[in-house]
Design brief:
198 residues, mainly alpha
C-alpha cells in the first residue's frame, strides 16, 4: 500500500502552527511592553542585574544555529546526507549550549535570591517583581521551546541516518527547520526586551 504524502498540506499546517506561536509570544511581548511603560524606572534597574554577556553569547549561539539548520537543509537538497547530518548535529549541540548557558544564568539569579515569590524579590518594588516574573515566564517558555526543538532535531538526525530524509523527501526536515528559526526569532525579540532595556 502506497504511503499518502501531502507536502503542501504539511507545510501549510506548519505555518498555521507557527502563527499560533507568534500570537502567543506576541501577546506576552505586548504585556511586557505595557508594564515597561508603566514601571520604566523599576524595569531599568531590574534589567541591569541580568548578565548581558551571557545574553549576548546566547544570541550568537542561536543565530549560528539558524545558519547550521539552513546548511543542513541545503545539504540534503544536494543529496549530501553526511553533511546534512553534521550540520543538524551542530544545531542540536548549539541548542544544548544555549540551554546550558540559560541554566547557568538562572542558577546565578536563584543563588542571589531572585526567583518568583522569593523573600528577597518580594521585598523589592512592584515593578521589579513584575520584571522578574515576566523574565522567568517568557525566557522559561522560550527555553521549553528550545528543548522541544532539540528533541525534534535529534529525531531528524536519526531520520537522516536511516535515509528517511533524503533529497527527494525532506519536508520533515524543512518543517523542523521552520520551527527552529521561529525559536531563534523569538529570542531576537526577547534579548533586547530584557537585556538591553534603557
Amino acid at each position: 500500500m502506497e504511503e499518502h504524502k501531502d507536502d503542501v498540506g504539511s507545510k501549510i499546517g506548519m505555518w498555521i502552527f507557527l502563527l499560533s506561536e507568534v500570537i502567543l509570544f506576541g501577546g506576552l511581548f505586548i504585556l511586557c511592553t505595557a508594564y515597561r511603560y508603566k514601571f520604566r524606572g523599576d524595569f531599568h534597574l531590574a534589567a541591569m542585574e541580568l548578565n548581558r554577556i551571557l545574553g549576548t553569547l546566547n544570541t550568537v549561539i542561536l543565530l549560528t544555529s539558524s545558519l547550521t539548520m539552513a546548511l543542513s537543509i541545503a545539504s540534503i537538497r544536494k543529496d549530501s546526507r553526511a553533511s546534512s547530518f553534521g550540520y543538524l548535529a551542530a544545531t542540536v549541540f548549539l541548542g544544548l549550549l544555549f540551554l546550558g548557558n540559560k541554566y547557568i544564568e538562572w542558577s546565578a539569579k536563584v543563588g542571589h535570591g531572585i526567583y518568583p515569590n522569593s523573600p528577597d524579590l518580594l521585598g523589592r518594588s512592584s515593578g521589579e517583581v513584575l520584571f522578574f516574573g515576566l523574565y522567568y515566564a517568557m525566557t522559561g517558555l522560550h527555553g521549553l521551546h528550545v528543548l522541544v526543538g532539540v528533541g525534534l532535531l535529534s529525531v531528524m538526525c536519526f531520520f537522516v541516518v536511516k535515509g528517511r530524509i533524503k533529497k527527494t523527501d525532506f519536508i520533515l526536515l524543512e518543517n523542523s527547520g521552520l520551527y527552529w528559526h521561529l525559536v531563534d526569532i523569538i529570542w531576537i525579540f526577547l534579548f533586547p526586551l530584557f537585556y538591553l532595556m534603557t
